[in-house]
């Protein structure tokens, strides 16, 4: 995870002081990229313990097309609670756009089903994309997440908004554009999630895994994460764990939490940090 730690250090030492929507304040850089070879292990941060349970459940929740936090909460995951309405709704966020993008006539597009068919049938295609940036459903930044949901809009606009996969020499690589990335809390989730998603797609399409590439627009450290970032930078990274998927489910939609095992994850202790809402 050298690249992640280098980016953390660069942001901490050279980032521009910048205000933000949450009123917290950040150090920020614009336009950075990190990449990981999935053959070298699962790119999980080892300089603090990550809650992989939350990451796996969140990915399965996206794939269900679900946009209500009930499934997450029932599984002990609370990472989306701050943005939901009293009934748990988040509006047409990731799951809705991935599985049920609405066309002008009200027709529905399932981007995930199309992606798997595309990779299986035409691996050389340069159109293996999932986009979350549906302009018609974007929220009004002057209103609260809950008000936006009441108006039929997303609680938050997608941060990880453009995915692309690429097949060459029997290997599947994944690339992700993140327009705004909370380097301490969000980025480790986004990296791990893309890695696991890429392993799942590769398994479904009988491919090996290649690389993942994360491209970031506004790359920021919140001012109340500076001390936590410094602690992490003093720690020595450990060996990467490995992801085992215990069976091959019938489709990309049939994975269960119990199908995933992360072996050899021996990180430094967890470092807690407040989330900017
Ligand atoms: N400011 C901010 N940063 C984010 O990363 C973020 C948002 N907002 N809003 C939407 C989603 C929600 N995500 C989140 C939310 C909370 C944690 C978090 O608090 N993580 C803790 C552990 C909490 C847990 O898993 O139960 C951590 O230490 O990693 C991480 C990602 C990513 N996104
Ligand atoms: O997957 C995610 C989701 C969210 N984030 C972070 C990035 C920002 O800190 C906030 C979103 O605030 P905006 O004002 O809408 O940019 O959430 C992330 O890093 N990863």
TrEMBL record:
Q: Where is the active site?
A: 159 (nucleophile)
What top-tier enzyme class does this entry carry? transferase
Cross-referenced InterPro entries: Thymidate_synth/dCMP_Mease (IPR045097), Thymidate_synth/dCMP_Mease_dom (IPR023451), Thymidate_synth/dCMP_Mease_sf (IPR036926), Thymidylate_synthase (IPR000398)
> What top-level branch of life does the organism fall under?
Bacteria
* Residue span(s) of domain Thymidylate synthase/dCMP hydroxymethylase: 2-277
Name where it's found.
Cytoplasm
Q: Which GO terms describe its molecular function?
A: thymidylate synthase activity
Reactions mediated catalytically: dUMP + (6R)-5,10-methylene-5,6,7,8-tetrahydrofolate = 7,8-dihydrofolate + dTMP
Q: By its UniProt entry, which SUPFAM superfamilies does this protein fall under? A: Thymidylate synthase/dCMP hydroxymethylase
UniProt: (6R)-5,10-methylene-5,6,7,8-tetrahydrofolate binding residues: 51, 182, 276
Question: What keywords are annotated for this sequence in UniProt?
Answer: Cytoplasm, Methyltransferase, Nucleotide biosynthesis, Transferase
Gene Ontology cellular component terms for the protein in this record: cytosol
One Pfam annotation, family name?
Thymidylat_synt
Location, primary (coarse class): cytoplasm
Q: Which pathway does the record list?
A: Pyrimidine metabolism; dTTP biosynthesis
Subunit structure as annotated in this protein's UniProt entry: Homodimer.
Q: Which family does it belong to?
A: Belongs to the thymidylate synthase family. Bacterial-type ThyA subfamily.
- The identity of this protein, by name, is Thymidylate synthase
The source organism is Methyloprofundus sedimenti
